[in-house]
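Design request, tokens follow.
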């Protein structure tokens, strides 16, 4: 299972660091492509984590996604 940390900039200007994983995907590049594909859909919703909390990220609220070589700091 691949896991990545994304820094998401929201439409309102705020940003947050979230952890995204998908049990059926083992490659980190494929995981990122999956997240982008989901968020690009009109009704796209991505289940992520922010610390201990489950966060559902809706694509219509995302302005940008940043992925660093080591990931963002959670």
């Amino acid at each position: 299972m691949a896991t990545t940390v994304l820094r998401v900039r929201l439409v309102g200007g705020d940003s947050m660091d979230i952890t995204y994983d998908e049990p059926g995907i083992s490659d980190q590049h494929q995981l990122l492509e999956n997240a982008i594909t989901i968020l690009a859909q009109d009704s796209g919703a991505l289940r992520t984590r922010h610390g201990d909390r489950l966060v559902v990220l809706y694509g219509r609220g995302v302005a940008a996604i940043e992925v660093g070589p080591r990931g963002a700091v959670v």
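Comment from the thread starter after seeing the answer: thanks! The mean pLDDT is 88.
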